[in-house]
Amino acid sequence: MQYRQRLKSRIIISFLLFGTALTAGFALAVVQLRAYLEDQLIGRQLSLELKNYESQYRHDPNNIATFSRIQGAVFSERKRANVPNNWRDLQNGVHTILDDSQSAFSNAYKLAVRKDDDFWFFLQYDISHEIKLRNRINWALIGFVVLFSGLSALIAFWSASSVMRPVADLADKLTSFRGEAKPQPLKPHFAEDEVGQLAATLDDYAERLTALVERDKEFNADVSHELRTPIAVISGATELLLAQDDLPEKAKQRLRRIERAVRQSNELIEVLLLLSRQEKQAPAHGEETRLVPVVEQVFDTHRVQIGQKPIALKIEAEADVSIAAPPAVLAVALGNLIGNAIKYTPAGDVRVVIRPHQVEVHDEGPGIDPNQAEHLFTRGVRGKDAPGKGGGLGLAIVRRICSLYGWSVSLKPGVEKGAVASLRFS
């Protein structure tokens, strides 16, 4: 599951929402409880007072107790026309009356009603003061919610900073180790907690990964060193044989084929060694490599691959382009692209178009699916109609070379047929 916010932000937001919800819930509960208790207490008291008021009235109508905030009214059967309109239809019990016809809450009261066949008794209790007090309490509670939300935010910031500090320190340590051949241990910098366990795990992983990389580098260096010796022997012997004047032409052609294979092997060893070390090698003394001679050399190397197929190799140079890269790197990159074009073309032209900052290799093969073009650069993936055997490594090597030198490579279908491989140098 992906998150858009940082971990610290999520902790702060969660803490703030929790504090605000808790405070708001508590305030709402207080308001509801106060309203319930007020209704129950006032209503019960009014019911008792109304009963006493009725008893006093029936005992002595001229001697009824008076109250500071309670007013009573009695209407006999013949005076019921004087009953206020909003009282007439009320049933026995306690009712809350809010009359906003005058100033706010001036006619807010509780009204206890008791009706029988002879008299209607009303007892009115002014609650405008309670309503004003209730509003003040509500505003006070809102203020407390805002206050405690602010306190929750402050505590959340402090808590998030404290909780995230070890994680942030671990991230800073990892960032500072970026690019080092052998990173320093992380565990000594952290306590024996979850972050410390994570640091220890990262140390173990880094140690095993470093050992693996070192073994890989040593293996590549050893293989390249051991391969150069027999290749040098083959190259020297080929030169000596080619120097003889009495060799038949057919033998010379075979020796030249061996010479090209030796040169190609040396280039491949050099490039693979660069890729394994992730080292970008520029030409000596800032020199640049011209593309046309490299393409001609690659053509010469791959003529054996053509065999008896009616394929013509063509160079279309729109400019004399030079690239700041060793000839071996360009030869391997272009060799894989041109080799694929020859492999997939049963007959026709394989054209290499050289433009400023770009080389295009056009073939006349079966073409490619545009949706699968990018997938072909994955290591071990071959084209659907690929002839012969292969490991699906050529395009993956080209992509690694481009990544090392900041270039880009792409595949797309040709205009009418075949495919176009583009190698951009900027």
From TrEMBL:
PROSITE patterns: HAMP (PS50885), HIS_KIN (PS50109)
Top-tier EC class: transferase
Catalytic activity: ATP + protein L-histidine = ADP + protein N-phospho-L-histidine
GO cellular component, one term: plasma membrane
Principal place of residence: membrane
InterPro entries named among the record's database cross-references: HAMP_dom, HATPase_C_sf, HATPase_dom, His_kinase_dom, HisK_dim/P_dom, HisK_dim/P_sf, Sig_transdc_His_kin-like_C, TCS_sensor_his_kinase
Keywords: Kinase, Membrane, Phosphoprotein, Transferase, Transmembrane, Transmembrane helix, Two-component regulatory system
Residue span(s) of domain HAMP: 161-214
An MF annotation (GO) of this entry: phosphorelay sensor kinase activity
Pfam families membership: HATPase_c, HisKA
Protein name as it appears in the record: histidine kinase
